[in-house]
Amino acid sequence: MVLLLHGTTRLRAEAIVRDGPNPSFQEPAGRESEDGFSCCVSGGPFFFGTPVDYACGKAKAFPDEGGPAILEVDVPEYVVAAAENAWFPISQGIVQFDIGAGIEELQKIWPDLLKRITTPICP
């Protein structure tokens, strides 16, 4: 298993736990995203910022969504491997689940995965 972290807001984290990751999530004031579902490997490296940084930024941008949250999820290695590609090798610390690249596998097993939401302290 690989422990993955997803920095977001409390309301979004609760929705992801309940409904699973949505690769076409739409920001409240934005257009539909085609960014898939990205997570960080818990031990990093964090070349693009830490999950806490991301969660704090989302909480600041969307203050009515319950504050910052980190969604922690244990994902089998074979599902992480399905998402890995030349743009997002696991050595970069990012796992990007996209349509045709791991999201379907993740969604299929989502109800059975161990998930936890934590509340980070923003700097």
Brief summary of the model shown:
With 123 residues, the protein is of the alpha+beta class. The protein has helices spanning 10-19, 51-61, 77-83, 103-109; strands at 2-9, 37-41, 68-75, 94-97, 115-118.
How would you sum up this structure, described in words?
With 123 residues, the protein is of the alpha+beta class. It is 28% helix and 24% strand. The chain has helices spanning 10-19, 51-61, 77-83, 103-109; strands spanning 2-9, 37-41, 68-75, 94-97, 115-118. The protein is globular and about 35 Å long.
Topology:
Blueprint: E1 2-9, H1 10-19, E2 37-41, H2 51-61, E3 68-75, H3 77-83, E4 94-97, H4 103-109, E5 115-118
Antiparallel strand pairs: 1-2, 1-3, 2-4, 3-5
Shape: globular
Strand-residue proportion: 15-25%
| Annotation, overall tally of beta strands | 5
Strand order of the largest sheet: 4-2-1-3-5
* Helix-strand pattern: EHEHEHEHE
How would a crystallographer describe the biggest sheet? 5 strands, antiparallel
Sheet/helix structural class: alpha+beta
Provide the helix percentage: 25-40%
Low-confidence runs of at least 5 consecutive residues: none
The number of helical runs is 4
Q: What does the average pLDDT come to?
A: 91
- Cα Rg: 13 Å
Distance between the termini: 30 Å
List key phrases describing it:
123 residues, alpha+beta, 5-stranded antiparallel β-sheet, globular
